[in-house]
Automatic annotation (TrEMBL):
Pfam family, one: Abhydrolase_1
Keyword tags: Biotin biosynthesis, Cytoplasm, Hydrolase, Serine esterase
Name of the protein: Pimeloyl-[acyl-carrier protein] methyl ester esterase
The gene coding this protein: bioH
GO biological process: biotin biosynthetic process
Keyword match Transcription: no
Residue ranges of domain AB hydrolase-1 in the record: 16-242
Length: 256
């Protein structure tokens, strides 16, 4: 039987579900535990097919959201990083009654660059999909290195991400390809404009995967949402700037 890996820790009264990004697992939130557990009841999840949630095949965004929601508390704040931000957004869209609020981190409602939209060039994502079948580990390592590029602690941060991947069971090529397919095709820009929940978007100014222009475009498209940009962070702001990140999260949730 396939089952999600799900761990609950923390002292707070509010439930906060943390969803990781592509290729990784819930251990990526390790640096957040001591900072957030005094304030929240944290739910650490390995997305279907990632880390300790083995036995799942490739999924659509909708299937992944439903699978995670089935194991979740009745109502929670949802925080998703990168691919996890899309999953958290999908949950908030389809089951708003199960969400107290939404926080996306270094995420975009549309990761692929379109005519008038900044993002990852579709051929880059297709290239990653092609390379996965040839050299799994090197492809994942390249993607992790991209996530920390430009920060003062880039090498150390990339090592930390790599350790998270290598210390747990690795996803299958099928699951990783499914995740890249979601990043290549998902576009939640229009449906998210109607979301009637507290929404915080956190960005890294140096992020090479989610260009900072996205923040300004969504400020205009989603005027009810709030954006925070960490000046010296890239795609993993909670790893490069854990104190500042935790403070932003605590402040926003407490205010709502």
């Amino acid at each position: 039987m396939t089952a999600l890996y799900w761990q609950t820790v923390g002292e707070g009264e509010r439930d906060l579900v943390l969803l990781h990004g592509w290729g990784l697992n819930a251990e990526v939130w390790g640096c957040m535990l001591e900072r957030l557990t005094p304030h929240f009841r944290l739910h650490l999840v390995d997305l279907p097919g990632y880390g300790r949630s083995q036995g799942f095949g490739a999924m659509s965004l909708e299937q992944m959201a439903e699978t995670v929601l089935a194991a979740a508390p009745p109502q929670a704040w949802w925080l998703g990083w990168s691919l996890g931000g899309l999953v958290a957004s999908q949950i908030a869209l389809t089951r708003p009654q199960r969400a107290s609020g939404l926080i996306t981190v270094a995420s975009s409602p549309c990761f692929a660059a379109r005519d008038d939209w900044p993002g990852i060039r579709p051929e880059v994502l297709s290239g990653f999909q092609h390379q996965l079948s040839q050299d799994f580990q090197r492809t994942v390592e390249r993607f992790l290195a991209l996530q920390t590029l430009g920060t003062e602690s880039a090498r150390q941060d990339a090592r930390q991400l790599k350790a998270v991947v290598l210390n747990q069971p690795t996803p299958t090529v099928e699951v990783l390809n499914g995740g890249l397919e979601i990043l290549r095709t998902a576009d939640l820009r229009r449906p998210m404009a109607d979301l009637n929940l507290p929404l915080l978007r956190v960005y890294g100014y140096l992020d090479g995967l989610v260009p900072r222009k996205v923040a300004g475009l969504l400020d205009a498209a989603w005027p009810r949402s709030t954006a925070e940009i960490l000046a010296k962070a890239a795609h993993a702001p909670f790893i490069s700037h854990p104190d500042a990140f935790a403070s932003i999260i605590e402040t926003f949730i407490t205010a709502h």
